[in-house]
Structures are given as C-alpha cells and as structure tokens.
Amino acid sequence: MRKDSLASYRAKRDFSQTEEPSGKAAVAAGKALRFVIQKHDASRLHYDFRLELDGVFKSWAVTRGPSLDPREKRLAVEVEDHPVDYGDFEGTIPEGQYGGGTVMLWDRGEWIPEGDPAEAFRKGKLSFELRGEKLQGRFALVRLRPRDGGKVHWLLMKSG
Ligand code: MN
Predict the structure, then answer these.
(1) How many Å lie between the centroid of ligand 1 and the Cα of residue 136?
(2) Start-end of H helices in the chain
(3) Residue 114 C-alpha to ligand 1 middle, in angstroms?
(4) Of 34, 76, 86, 150, which is most buried, counting CB atoms within 10 Å of its CB?
(5) What is the pLDDT of residue 1?
(6) What is the dihedral of CA 64, 117, 32, 154, to 10 degrees?
(7) Torsion angle (degrees, nearest 10) of CA 66, 87, 59, 33
(8) How far is the CA of 120 from the centre of ligand 1 (A)?
(9) Could you tell me the distance, in angstroms and rounded to a whole number, from the CA of residue 122 to the centre of ligand 1?
(10) What is the C-alpha separation between 109 and 149, in angstroms, rounded?
C-alpha cells in the first residue's frame, strides 16, 4: 500500500465537519477487490466510480454515469484516491465542505481485473469484469492523452 496515497483526499476534507471516513481503518487482506459507484448530488450531479487497488479506491467522477451500451463512452475524470471504507459511505456532506451534497450508494460488488491491475492503471488501460447488483459484465477504462495542467481524463465504456 502506498502510504501517501490518501494525502490529497484528507487535505480536501475537514473530518470534524463531514461524516466521510478519514481512511484510518485497516484494510482486510486477501479479499476480493471491491468496486463501488456512488451517486453524488454535489454542485453538479455525477457518479463516483471507484475500483479497489493497492489498499485504496482509485476514483473517477463520471458525469452521466456508466452506460451499458458499448457505443456510449463516458468521460471519467480521475479524482483523488479514496479510502476503502468510503465504499460503505452514504450521507450528506455539509454545504461549504468539499463535495457538499448527498452521496448515495448506486452499485457495488466485486471487480475482476484482466492482468495486473496496478500495471494496467499505470499504462492507462484497465479491462475488467464487474459483478455488481446493477452492473455486470466487461468494462474498460482508457486514459486519454494528458492535457497541460488539466485533470486526467479517461473514458469508461462497456466492452462487447
Ligand atoms: Mn464526487
């Protein structure tokens, strides 16, 4: 586990004001990799797509949510790593706090990466199967060419 991976997550939040987890809980080893999608009604409604990797949730904000149509590629903006106990979080983040608004669990389950997920993440092409309550089957996340100083954009799509 990379120790500093959650530094950005913690820096954005005041845990005396928000009920979101601080990420201090220990991570259970040897279990299936989790994924979660949270519907987040913040300043702009979006869906937070999170894949457990190396003891944290790699996270993307997907404006329109995932699509089951392989032709519909969805923009997924990479955001800071989240603690794995965020996968059970639902609630209201107070206005004025980072991400203020309501967070609802939309789907969760297990994800099965194709190949080594850490290497695939580094290379910017993740292929995987989702075994969720809503989403099942094969999906891919593909990183787009970086833009100067901007956020890191990926495309989330259903594959075949
Ligand atoms: Mn969000």
Answers:
(1) 22
(2) 7-11, 117-123
(3) 26
(4) 76
(5) 47
(6) -10
(7) -90
(8) 23
(9) 22
(10) 34
Q: Among positive and negative, which fits the CA dihedral 63, 147, 80, 71? A: positive
φ and ψ at 119, to 5 degrees?
-70, -40
Distance CA 135, CA 33 (A): 15
What backbone torsions phi and psi does residue 115 show, to the nearest 5 degrees? 80, -165
| pLDDT tens for each residue of 114-153 | 999 999 999 999 999 999 999 999 999 999 988 777 899 9
Distance 43 CA to ligand 1 centre (A): 10
Asked if residues 71 and 103 have their Cβ atoms less than 8 Å apart, the reply is no
Question: Ligand 1 center to residue 48 CA distance, Å?
Answer: 5
Give burial (CB, 10 Å; 0-12/13-18/19+) of 85. middle
pTM: 0.88
Kindly report the number of other CB atoms within 10 A of residue 21's CB atom: 18
User: Residue 56 Cα, ligand 1 centroid: separation in angstroms?
Assistant: 16
Rounded to the nearest angstrom, the distance between the alpha carbon of 79 and the centre of ligand 1 is 8
In angstroms, what is the C-alpha Rg of the chain? Answer: 15
